[in-house]
Amino acid sequence: MERTLLLRTMARTATLRAALLVAAIGCGPGNAADTVSDTVSDSRSDMASPAEGANRYPLYIGTYTQGWACNEKQDCTSSGIYRSVFDASNGTLSPAEPVATTVNPSYVVVHPSGAFLYAVNEVGDYGGESSGSLTAYRVQVDGALTEINRVSSFGADPCYVSVDRSGRFAFVANYSGGSVASYRIAD
Asked: Residue 152 to residues 34, 47, 144, 162: CA-CA distances in angstroms?
């Protein structure tokens, strides 16, 4: 039976010092195996489907869809998370295609198994509270994303998410909230 709730809250919030501790123990920024750039997540980990081939790697790109990052004279044209494929044999990158519609998925990361993707939704009001959210997706064989669930980030404007190397815990840093939240990932 498939679980519908992938993330369960372990600890609500902590101070900025705790965020630095998370980074220091290897669960935060600097885990180059999981991150290509600030908003692009490399999903090579055990999930490169046979259709992608040995030298082709899917990349997921988070974007801003509304708010301060958009040009004040026009609406944002992004719809959420996009997917592109990098061909290492010739150095080309395919055009980005939308794979999930969601608000301000400003940072994304792929689970070490390659089967899931997590995105922070960088907003200041989620569920009527001063909070953003964290969304979990299942990565389909064709690279499309299916939303599994969404939970509060327990602070406004989450700007970073990471998953520890074991794939058992997710960590979120909240920019305006000045806090972090940790989540145990369900089996």
From this structure: 23, 28, 24, 15
Q: Where are the beta strands (DSSP E) in 24-156?
A: 35-37, 40-42, 56-61, 80-87, 92-93, 97-101, 107-110, 116-121, 133-139, 145-152
CA proximity to 70, closest of 122, 134, 117, 109: 122
Q: What percent of the chain has pLDDT over 90?
A: 61
pLDDT digits (tens, 9 = 90+) for 107-166: 999 999 999 999 999 999 999 999 999 999 999 999 999 999 999 999 999 999 999 999
Between CA 165 and CA 155 the distance in angstroms is 24
Asked whether the beta carbons of 160 and 153 are under 8 A apart, the reply is: no
Give the residue-averaged pLDDT of 71-99.
88
Closest CA to 111 of 53, 180, 56, 183: 183
Q: Which one-letter DSSP state was computed for residue 89?
A: T
**What 3-state DSSP class applies to 3?**
coil
Q: Is 36 helix (H, G, I), strand (E, B) or coil?
A: strand
What's residue 67's pLDDT?
81
Q: What is the dihedral of CA 120, 121, 125, 131, to 10 degrees?
A: 0
